[in-house]
Amino acid sequence: MLLMAAVAQVRVCSRISLVCLLLGSWALLSVCSGTPASASASEANKSDSSRSVSRNKSVKAFPVVTVDFGHVRSPFVVALWILLASVLKLGFHFLPKVSTIVPESCVLVCVGLIVGGLLKAVGETPPILKADVFFFYLLPPIILDAGYFLPTRPFSENLGTILSFAVLGTLWNAAFVGLLLFAVCQIQGSGLQHITLLPNLLFGSIISAVDPVAVLAVFEEIHINELLHILVFGESLLNDAVTVVLYHLLEEYASDPEIGAKEIILGILSFFVVALGGIFVGIFYGLIAAFTSRFTSRIRVIEPLFVFLYSYMAYLCSEIFHLSGIMALISCGVIMRPYVEANISHKSHTTIKYFLKMWSSVSETLIFIFLGVSTLAGQHEWNWIFISCTVMFCLIGRVLGVLGLTLILNRFRIVKLTPKDQFIISYGGLRGAIAFSLGYLLRESFPRTLFLTAIITVIFFTVFVQGMTIRPLVELLAVKKKQDSKRSINEEIHTQFLDHLLTGIEDVCGHYGHHHWKDKLNRFNKKYVKKCLISGERSKEPQLIAFYHKMEMKNAIEMVVSGGLPKLPSSVSIQHVQRKDTLTERLLPTLTKEREEEVRKILRENLQKTRQRLRSYNRHTLIADPYEDQWNQILLKRQRLRSLDPRGSTYLTVPTAGRGSPPEQKPAESDATYFEPRDPTSDLPSITVDLASPFSSESVETQNKGAVPGEDKGIVFSAKNPTNDENGSPNQRMQRFVSDPGPDNKPNDHFQS
Amino acid sequence: MGSTPSLPAWEIRNLANTTGFTSEQIEILHRRFLHLTDGKTTMSKDCFDNIPDLDCNPIKSRIVNAFFDGRNLGLQTSGTVDEITFENFLTTLSFFQHMDDNHTKEDLEYYKNEKLQFLFRMYDTNGDGKITLEELREIVDELLSKTSNAEKTSSSIADAAMLEAANICVGQMIAKNPAKEQAINFWKAKPLCPGTDSLAGGKYELAS
C-alpha cells in the first residue's frame, strides 16, 4: 500500500514517493533479515510437530498457509536488491533538476548510504560488497559491454597514448603517492610510524588506478568528444594489468624486508605475462566464439548465449592464472565482434546489445549502491593526516603525471593534446569500486581499516566533487562535445579512399608506417581469417557493401517505426533530384498531423477490404514486418529488379525500388515487402502498397475527389493532371499505390484493383 | 646506395624553400626517387610498377595519375604529363605534409584548402571541376574492385552517397554550383579523418 500511495502522489511530490519507496524497501529488508530467526524457529516447531505426529499420531490440522522464508532467502534478497536498484534508477529520472546537476553515480551512492544507515539503525548488519561478488558477477558485464562496443578506430589510432597513460601513468601515480605517504608517515606525532614503505607502496598502487566503472558513469553523461573519451576510458581499461601486477607483487613481498633487483625484474616480467597472457586468452576465446557463431544458422535463439558465455569463460580462465581478466574480456569482445556480427541474425544482434546494456546498467547501479552501504558497514579508522594527504597526493600526482606524459607524447602525436584536453584527462581520473574491492582483499597484517577508510574517502571525493563539477567545467572550458552524427555512407567511402591513398603514398615513399601495417592486416584478415570465421556468402562481402546494407536496414527500420517520412532517403535515383528544379522546396515536405491521421484512416479502411481480393501473393510479401529474416532476400530481389532496367528510367525507379517518389520522399524499404513484381521484364512498374507511409497531400486529394472508396473497387487513383509543370515527368503518375499487383495496360492513368 | 648522385646543396635549399621539406627529408626522398627510376632523372608511369605493395592497392591508378596530373604540379594545362622530375615528385608529396601550429591561421586555412583541392582532383578524373555521379560510381567501383559481385550495389552506394551530400547542402545542389563547392563543404562538415593519420613518424602527414 505504500507503493500505491507513492504512485498516487508521483506527479505532485516525487520526492515523497522516493522516500516511500525507500521506506517500503527498508521495511521489506528488515522483515527479510528478521524472519530467518523466526523462520528457523517455525521450522523447528514444524519438524517437532511432524515428528510428534508420526510418533503420537495425534490429530493435527494440515497447515493451509505456511510461511517458510528461510527456504527462499538468498535469491529473494538478491532479487529484491536488484529490484530496488532499478526502481531507484527509474525514480532518478523523474527528478529533472537533480539529474542535470548530480550525476547518477552520486545519487546512487547517497541512496546506498541512506539504506545502509537505515539498516544499521534497525540493528542489522548491512551487507558489504564482497570482493568475490564484485569481481565475478558485477564487474564482467560492465567490462564486456565496454569491450564489445569499443570504437576500434579511435582506440587503435590512439593506442600508443592510451598505453603510455595506462602503464606509465599508473606506475608514476603509484610511486608518487606511495613514496610521499611513506614520507608523511615518518613524521613524528602522526601516529603512523608503523606503516613501512611497502604497505605504503601497496596502498599507492591500489589507489592510483583509474576506475572504468566510475569513468563510464560520469563521462557518459557529459558527452565530450570522442578523443578524450577514448583516452580516459581506454586508460581505465588497460591499467588493470598494471594494477594486478603491482598488487600481487607488493602483497607478496610486503613481509620481505628487502627487495632486490631480482624481484624488480621478476615484477616487470610478470607484467608482460599478465598483460599479454590476458590478451591471448581473450583472443583465443574470441576466435572460438566467432567460429562457433558460423554454425548457428539453424538455431538462432541461442546465439547471444555464445557471446556471453565465451566472454565469461575468457574472464574466468584468465582469473585462474591471475592474468588480467579485464584485458581478456576486452580483447575477446573486440576480436569476436566483426565476425559474430556478420554471422548472427539481426534479432540476435539486438538481443546482445540490449542484454549487455541492461546487465551493465544494473551492475553499475548495484556497485554504487553497495559502495554506499559498505561505507557504513565496516569499521573505520580516521586519521586526518593520512587521509587528507592521500587525497591531496592523488590529485597532485595525477595532474603532474598527465602533464609530464603529454609533454613527451605531444612530440609524437599529430593531433596534439591541448591544455584543455590535459585538464579534462587529469580531472577525469576517477577512482571507484575496484580500488575498494582490492583494499577489502588485503590481509589483516596491513593496517586494513585505515586503508579502507582512506580509499573510501578518495572514492567519495572523486565521485562527488569531481563527478559533479566536471559537467559545469566542461561547459565553462567549452570543450568540444561529441558530434552526434550518424556515420554516413559518404564518410565510409571517403575514409576508405583516404586509407588506401595514404597506404599508397607510404608505399611510394618506401616507408612502412602505420597505414602499411594496417593495410597488411586487413588483407590478411580478408584472405584467410574471414573465410574461416564467417559463414557463407558474407565472408566475401567487402566492408563498404556490408556497411551500406546495414545503413539501409537502419533507415528502413527507422521509417517503419516513425511511420513517416524518412530523413535520409537512401538511394533514390539522382535523376529525379536533378530534374525537379521547381520542386526543390518540396524535397522534404511535411504533413500536418491531422492530415496524416486522415490519410492513415482512409488507407486502413480501404486496404483492409482489398486484401482478400489479391490474386497472387505469398505469405512473405504481405507481412508488414521488415524484421523478418527474409530481409536480405527482399533486398536482393529489389536489386535484381533494378538491374533489369539499366536505363534506370523514371518508370521503374519509383515504385519498384519502392523508394517512393523522390519529391515526396516516401519511405522506401517497407514497400518491397508487400509485393513481388509479377512481370519483371515488362516496362511497367510493379505496384506497391505502402501501409506505413502517408501519401502526399495532393494524391490523397485526388483520391478523395475521384475515387469511390465505398464501392468495392478498392482504391482508384486518377493521375494528377492539374499542374502540368509538376507532373510533367511520367514518374509523378507512377506514384500511385494500389493494392493490385497486376499492372494495367494503361499505366498512365488509372490503376484499379 | 653509394653510387647514387646526390643533389647539390643549393638545389636542396631551393627545394626546401619551395616545398617545405627539411633537407634530410629531401635527401631521403631523392634516394627513393632514384631507386624507383633506376637512376634516371625523370620518372614515368611505369616506374611505379616497381613497387610490389602498390599493386594490391585498389586505387593504384588514381594515385599514380595524381603524380602526373598537371593541376597538382601547378601547370596551367589540365592534362597529364608523361614524365615528372624530382621537383614535381616532391611537389605532389608536399601535399601530405603536416602543418604545425607555427603558421598563421590564414596559412593553415590555405594549406587545408590545398589539401582538399588535391583530394578533389583525385576524385574528379575528367578535370571539369565537378564530381559527377559517374565519377563517384567509378570510385566506389574501384574501392570494391577486389570483389566479384559488386556491380549493382556500387551504383546504389554512389547514389546514396550523392543524395546524402545533397541533403547536407540543400539548396546549393541544383547543378548551379559546381559539385566541388558542395563536396568541399561536405568534407569540411563531416569529420573525415580525425587528423591522426601519419605516414612516417613525423615525416609526412595528412591532416584534414
TrEMBL record, chain A:
Catalysed reactions listed for this entry: Li(+)(out) + H(+)(in) = Li(+)(in) + H(+)(out); Li(+)(in) + Na(+)(out) = Li(+)(out) + Na(+)(in); Na(+)(in) + H(+)(out) = Na(+)(out) + H(+)(in)
Pfam families the record matches: Na_H_Exchanger (PF00999), NEXCaM_BD (PF16644)
Cation/H+ exchanger transmembrane domain location: 83-475
Polar residues compositional bias, start-end: 694-705, 720-734
Membrane topology according to the record: Multi-pass membrane protein
Keyword annotations from UniProtKB, A to Z: Antiport, Calmodulin-binding, Cell membrane, Coiled coil, Glycoprotein, Ion transport, Lipoprotein, Membrane, Palmitate, Phosphoprotein, Signal, Sodium, Sodium transport, Transmembrane, Transmembrane helix, Transport, Ubl conjugation
Residues in the signal sequence: 1-34
Gene Ontology CC: basolateral plasma membrane
Primary localization class, coarse: membrane
Region of interest called Disordered, as start-end residue ranges on this chain: 647-753
GO biological process: regulation of intracellular pH; sodium ion import across plasma membrane
Residues passing through the membrane, by range: 76-95, 102-122, 134-150, 162-189, 201-220, 227-249, 264-287, 361-378, 384-412, 424-443, 449-474
GO MF annotation terms: calmodulin binding; potassium:proton antiporter activity; sodium:proton antiporter activity
Sodium/hydrogen exchanger regulatory region domain boundaries: 568-641
Subcellular location: Basolateral cell membrane
Chain segments annotated as coiled-coil in the UniProt record: 593-620
NCBIfam families given in the database record: b_cpa1
Family indicated by similarity: Belongs to the monovalent cation:proton antiporter 1 (CPA1) transporter (TC 2.A.36) family.
Protein name, per record: Sodium/hydrogen exchanger
Automatic annotation (TrEMBL), chain B:
Cell compartment(s), UniProt: Cell projection, Lamellipodium; Cell projection, Ruffle membrane; Cytoplasm; Membrane
CDD domains for this protein: EFh
Membrane topology of the entry: Lipid-anchor
Keywords, alphabetical: Calcium, Cell membrane, Cell projection, Cytoplasm, Differentiation, Lipoprotein, Membrane, Metal-binding, Myristate, Nucleus, Protein kinase inhibitor
Endpoints of the signal sequence: none
GO CC, alphabetical: cytoplasm; lamellipodium; nucleus; ruffle membrane
A biological-process GO annotation: cell differentiation
GO molecular function ontology, one term from the record: protein kinase inhibitor activity
Occurrences of domain EF-hand (ranges): 111-146
UniProt xrefs under InterPro entries: CHP3, EF-hand-dom_pair, EF_Hand_1_Ca_BS, EF_hand_dom
Record-stated family: Belongs to the calcineurin regulatory subunit family. CHP subfamily.
Stated name of the protein: Calcineurin B homologous protein 3
Source organism per UniProt: Chiloscyllium punctatum
